[in-house]
Amino acid sequence: ATAVHYWGRCTVRPPLIFAVSIRRFRLALILVIALGTLALASSKEARAPGSDEAFPLLGRIVVVDPGHGGIDPGCHLDDVTEKEISLSVALLLAEELGNLGGKVFLTRTADVELSSFGRSMRTRHGRDLEGRVLLAESYKGELLVSLHVNAANSEKMGGGMVFYHPGSFESRKLAASILKHLREVTPGDQNAALPADFFVLRRAAMPAVLVEMGFLTHRQDRAVLVSPQGQKRLAAAIARGIEEYLSVDPPLAQEDRVEAGVPFLHLYGLGTDGAHECPLILSQSQPGSQVGGP
Asked: 58: which residues sit within 8 A by CB, 6+ positions away?
């Protein structure tokens, strides 16, 4: 402080510039506290249930198709069938996606096939496949993920595979994203994302992939496919691939979303009876080559 003399009296006061600095400091401090409080509130809000950060798939619609069902067992080895594995993993996958905020539809939730939903195909097999596509479209799905299990005439062939239609660039991107994580659960010499002209992939109006989660005829793959823990790992890997694909894909316009809000699951199991062949048998001499298909 400095002494200022007024007519013989001495009074002490701070310099004017220092007084102004104090007032500015107080205002700045109040502003910092206010902004900090607002930032903290925004951070908490971003992590609250129902927010996009907590639920990255909020408002996104995914259709999961457990392959085969009913009188159609798909691939089988002893008493283990493809239809049972695909349904078990599909239910776990639906839970994983639902926890991320996605709206999930399943083409079936029970041991049934879906030929009763087909319209124009002549065979039961064809109507079953057609029914899966029609259901996916009726649910207004953004993606269709069909789950299957593979088999081969060689026990050495193994690994998860993902198929996409060659005419769909988005399906190819989705296949690559899923394979990236699937190969960590079922690694093998058949790991690949490959084009295929399968009915479901060809006829789907949205990006669609067919996931061969592993080979029943491969010892390591089979251990994953039949165990509850292995099935959880498969579901988590596929969900991670879907999440990564959708995270870079622009969201639907708000008017196109269906009931975007708190995460929920819609599980539908529909159909009657039917039968068709194991989806894929691959040639050992040509890894990834197609001999049969759904």
From this structure: 50, 51, 52, 101, 102, 260, 261, 263
**Residues 6+ away with beta carbon under 8 Å from 265:** 94, 95, 98, 103, 104
Nearest 5°: phi and psi at 56?
-65, -15
Global confidence as pTM: 0.71
Alpha-carbon span 61 to 142, nearest angstrom: 5
Burial of 26 (0-12, 13-18, 19+ CB in 10 A): exposed
3-state SS of the chain: helix, strand, coil percent to 5? 40, 20, 40
Query: In one letter, which amino acid is 249?
Result: D
Q: How far apart are CA 65 and CA 81, in angstroms?
A: 16
Q: How many other CB atoms sit within 10 Å of the CB of residue 233? A: 19
Taking only the tens place, the pLDDT of each residue in 94-144 is 999 999 999 999 999 999 988 788 878 878 888 889 989 999 999 999 999
